Structure formats: C-alpha cells, structure tokens
Amino acid sequence: MTQKPRARDLGIPFDGEPGPLNAITDVAGVEVGAATVIAGDGKLEVGRGPARTGVTAILPRGRVFDPVFAGTAALNGNGEMTGTLWIEESGFLEGPVMITNSHSVGIVRDAVIGWQGRHGLVAPLSHDLYWCLPVVAETWDGILNDINGFHVTAQHTVEALNGARLGPVAEGNVGGGTGMSLFGFKGGTGTASRQLSPEDGGHVVGVLVQGNFGRRRNLTIAGVPVGREIPDLLPDLAWDRDTGSIIVVIATDAPLLPHQLKRLARRAPIGIARTGGYGANGSGDIFLAFSTANPGAFSRKETRSVDVLPNDAMDGLIEATAQATEEAIVNALVAAEIMTGRDGNTLHAIPHDRLQEILRKYNRLADQM
C-alpha cells in the first residue's frame, strides 16, 4: 500500500501524542479491511453505474469469536447503524463493525451473518443453531455513486472481511469512504490514534471515521477558517445544505465497561465540532466505542471477573477521543483525491499547497509554533 501524505506531513498541528501508526490499529489486535468499487463513467444508468462506493470492515480482535464490551451514541439520528439496540442491551459487540453506503446496509448485514457462520465466529445456542445482529453503519454517497444500483455485493463484504489486517490503514477514497464528501471537498475514510502518558495510564485510543458531512463555510482546521479561505472548488452538483453524515468507531485497550464506553462515544462530537460539524438536521452522526481489554469476558453460562478502570481515571481517554476524532477527519480530507462520478459530478480534493498557505497566514503551521 502506498502511503499518502497525512495531515501531520503537511505541518498541521494537533494536540496529543499519536501511536506509532497514528491509526485505529495502534490498539493491539484491531484489524481493518476494505473493498473499493469504482466502475464506469458518464451518465447515470441505475443498476449499471457509474459506481463509486465500497465497504470497510473493522475486526476488534481479528478472526476470533471473543466479544468486546461496547457502547454507542448519536449526535443526530438521520442515519443507520444496525445492531446497536443489542449492544445497548447486552453491553457486547459480538462481531465486526462494517461501514458502507446508505442503500447497501442490508446486503452487507446479510453477508456478515454468513461469513461469521462459515468461520465459526459465533456462539451457538445449541448444536449448529446461532444468531447474529451485525453492526453495519452507513453514509450517503449519491453525489458520485449510483447508490440505487446496489453495486456493493456480498462478495465485496467478504473481501473486506478477509482482507482485514493489522498495520497501516488506507485512507481517503477507499472502502465505504470511496464516494463520500467532506465540507464540499472529497472526503472518505480517515484514522488517527493517541498514546496516553504513563501518568494517564499508558492506554491507547484509536479512531476510524467515514466522513461525509459539513458545509464549506464551516470547515475549520487547527482553529483556522479554511473553508472561508477556499470558497471555490465546490462540487459540480451542490446545494447549500449539510445533508451528509459521519460514522466514528473508537477503539481502546483500556479496561472499560459498556457505560464507560458510551461516555467515550459521546465525546466524538467534540472532535467533529472542532472541524466545523454541528450535527445538522440532514446529518447522521453515529458513534461506537469498544474495548479490547478483558478477553474472555463473554460467556453464555459462566460468571466472569473483569478489570474496570475507575471513572476518575478516564479524563485522558476522553480527551484522546476528541483529539483523535478531529485528526481522523482531517486525515480523511488530506488523503482524499479528486473524483468524478455519476453524470460527471466532481468532488475536488482539498489543495495541500493552499491549505498550507492558509495555515501559514494564521501562524498555525507546526514549524511556526
């Protein structure tokens, strides 16, 4: 995988210390995979394309059945993340987290059920009887993609799951983020992490976002009103409304219980707000947090003992969640490349040189601080 420039490579300053990869995979055991669907050009023909879409997979512990404690939250509910009711009821995330486009949630969900069954990643009730309530989240890519053509298939879902790996995570126009926009620029998939100091517990927080929200005039990077400084390069198909969404997946190795993970999930909007998002009426802003601590906590029959971090020790994790969410969004912007889709509609990439000039104008480049 060719590593694209990231926000820090451009000199954009962020608070906090990232992990070695500055990615959700800095949380040990977390794997990420993606299947990207790019096909066709020109005029939209529903069912034939053009297709600019995909699916992203996050496996909390890789390919083992060992459910993790989890919690969910939402800033605005104009979106979907399946399986959250059972997470709220049980406190466990029992499989992967998938992210795709709005109209492909069903096919991805069904494919995950089959994949988990084939690989034995289930806890049967009796003999071969099992049930799954997969977590599948979405954002809308209809500006570029033939979203009603259902171009994401079960095979793409399996490709993303089977391709999930440790290590660096592809960003920008990949997986579920392929056709997405951010603040009127090309958006998509982004990730970041924070490594807490020993004084704060030494834990890791990793975030992955699928960003598809925001009005250009509100885009803020490192406290600078970048969107107002770049009023051009708007999409060919545009309307002055925030009708997009963002999915935020937060991972940590800190030993947190479900109610504490919900607390982390509720902090994602702080990072979103720092970039200029505000939970608009048309935006589905939905968040999930999970912990890879306490392996073996899940059982259908036996009592388990688990470790729990005190609430008074959570401040570092809370701050890290906000910081990593903000940086993951900006990483998605920086990594994304110009893309033309249905009917010739084009989303432009944020120009790196102009972005640096603007930050320099406001004395916000890292080498000026």
- Annotation field: number of helices: 8
Report the C-alpha radius of gyration, rounded.
Answer: 20 Å
From the structure provided, what is the oligomeric state, counting identical versus distinct chains? single chain
Q: What is the helix fraction of residues, given as a range?
A: 10-25%
> Largest sheet, described in full?
6 strands, mixed
Average pLDDT taken over every residue:
95
Poorly predicted runs = none
How many β-strand runs?
14
Q: Order the strands across the largest sheet as they lie in space.
A: 4-3-12-11-10-9
Instruction: State the end-to-end CA separation.
Output: 32 Å
Strand residue percentage: 15-25%
Coarse morphology: globular
Helices and strands, in order, run as EEEHEEHEHEEEEHEHHEHEEH
Structural class assignment: alpha+beta
